[in-house]
Amino acid sequence: MLKYLKGNVYIALMLRLLIIFLLYTISRALFLLFNLSNFPGLHFEELVRIFLGGLKFDLSAILYLNLLFILSQILPFPFVYNRNYQKTFKWVFFVTNAIGLAANAGDIVYYPFTLKRTTFSAFAQFSNEENLGSLFIKFIFIDYWYITLLYIAMLALMVWLYKRIKTQKPNIPSKILYYSSSVGVMLLLAWFCVAGLRGGFRHSTRPITVSNAGEFVKDPAQINIVINTPFSVIRTISTKPLKKRDYFNQATLDSIYNPVKLPDTSQAFNKKNVVVLVLESFSREYIGAFNPTLEGGKYKGYAPFLDSLKSVSLSFNNAYANGRKSIEGLPSVIASIPGINEPFVLGYYSGNRINSLGGLLGKEGYHTSFFHGAPNGSMGFSSFINMAGIKHYYGKTEYNNDADFDGIWGIWDEPFLQFWANKMNTFPQPFFSNVFTLSSHHPFKVPEKYEGKFPKGTLPIHQNIGYSDMALRKFFQTASKMPWYKNTIFVLTADHSTVAWHDEYKTSIGAYAVPIIIFDPSGELKGQIDAPVQQIDIFPTIMNYLHYPKPYFAFGNDMLNPKEHFVINTIDGDYQIMVGDYVMLSRDGKAIKLYNYREDILLKNNLLKQEPLLVAKMERYLKAFIQQYNAHMIDNSLTVKRR
User: End-to-end distance of the chain based on CA atoms, in angstroms?
Assistant: First the structure.
C-alpha cells in the first residue's frame, strides 16, 4: 500500500502544503518572539490554544494562495505527471508562497507601529509614495537584515523539502478506472478546499474573518498572533458597508449623544488664527511633563520644549488618539472622524461629504492651508485635504530645496517648520494652517550635524523626538516675532502613539495615548484637565472656543465643556470605550472586560461582574455612538446644511 502511495500526486500535494503549514507556524513563532513585550502574561496553555487556532486561519490563507497550484495537481489527466508540467508549477508554488511568507515576515517588524496585522488598505496607504524602492531596500538590507536572513532561510527550507517529495506516473491498467477515480478525488478535494477557505464544513458556516480569531484568545490583541498576514490582507480586500442600528429612538439617541453641534450664539465670533501641529509618532510617553510619576518621578522624557510649553498652556493629561495610523490621525484631528476598524479615507464611505476645522473656517473668510514635507501626494493627504475644504497644500514640491531632503520621507522638520512659519507670515488674517511633521519616523535618522546631540534613550525613536522637539522650539521662536502670533491659538497633538518602553503604555489604552496641548499666547487658556479626551474632540473644542456661530457636525465633544465625555477606539473589530475612570471592551455587542485604569494601570483586574450598573451606563454610550456613527456614514450626513 505504501509503495503504491509513494509518488502519488495527491499525497505529494498534501505533503507540499504541509511544508507551508510548517513555515507559517514558524512565522507565527517568530512574530510572537519579536513582539513578546506586546503580549504580556501569556501562559503555555494559552499559547497552545493560539497556535492550534492559528492552523484554521493558516489553512484558509494557504488554500487561497495555492488555488492555482492545487488545481494544477488535481486535474484528472495523465499529463499532470509530465516532468516539464511539474517544473512549471513548482515555480508557481515557490513564487506564491514566497509572497505569503514575505507578508508574514514584514509584519514581524511592522506590527509594533500599528498593533495590528497588515490589511488590504495598506496598498492604498502607500500607493502614492515616491520613495518605496529606497525604503524597501533600506528596510530589508540594513534596518531588518536579520528578518531578511530568517526569511531566506525559510525559503531555502521550503525548496529543500519540496524537492524531496517526488511524483511519478502510476500504472494505468484501465482508463475508465483512472478517469473515474481521478474525477472523484478531484471533486472530494475541491469540497475540502471550499470548506477550508470558508473555515468550516457546515452549510451554515459563514466565511471566517479576523474577528473569528477571538475564539482562541483571552485578550483581543492576541488575535494578531492567531491570524497571519496573507489572511488579514485577503479578508479585507472588499470593505463591507455598515449596518444601521436601532438601539434608541431618535429623541433618546440625541439626548445621549449627538454629533450635530448647536453652538451658543450669545457671544461674537472671535476670529483668531488657528494653527494645528500634528506631530508624527509623538507618544505621550515620550514627554516628561505628562509623566510626573513615571520611574518614581525621575523620568524626564525626550521633549524639553514641549515640557516648557505645557506649563504655560492648557494641557490634557489623559488624551488618546482615535487610531494607530497617520491616515487615521489626520481625519480625527481636523475633521472629527475617528478611525473605526479601518481608516476613513480608505473605507467604504471615504467619498462622503465632510466638514473640517479648516473647511468651515474657510467659509467664514479664513485663509486655509496644510503643510507636509513629504513628496506631494504622500499618504493620500493631498486628496483628503482637498476633500476637507482646505484650499492650499504645501509639500516637498513647494518647499523646492532638496538640499534639506532626508533621503527617505521628506524635508527635515527643522527647515520645514521654518518654511511654514515664514509662509504663514504671507497669509492674510485670519488664517487656519495645519502642519504634519515627519522626522520622528523610522528609520530614525537625524541630520548629520545633529548626530549625538540628543539623548539616545531606550528606543531608536527617542533621539528623533529630541530633534523634532528642538525644531518645534525654533519654530515658536520664529513665530513669536511674527505680527500674527498673539492673535493665534496653537493646538499640538500626535497623529498616533507608537512603540512603547514602559508597561503602562503597552496596554490597550496606553497604546493610544497622545499629548493634546492648546497654547494661546494671550494667556487666556492655562491649566490641566485630567478627564479622558480624544483627537476627535479637538475640532469642536476650537470651534466652541472661537464661538463659531453656526451648527456643524463633529463626532467629538468640546473638551472644555464639563459634561461627561467618552473616548472611542476599535481594536481588531472590538470597541473600547473610556468613561471617567473606567475603560470597557466590547465584542459583538457584549461587554467582555471592564477596568478602573486609574487604580489598575496595567489593566489586570476585570471588574465586569462587580460593576453591572457602570457596564450598563457605558454600553448605553457605546450603543449611542455606534447608532449615530453608522447612520451618518450610511446616509452621507457628515455635514450640516448651511442656510
Answer: 83
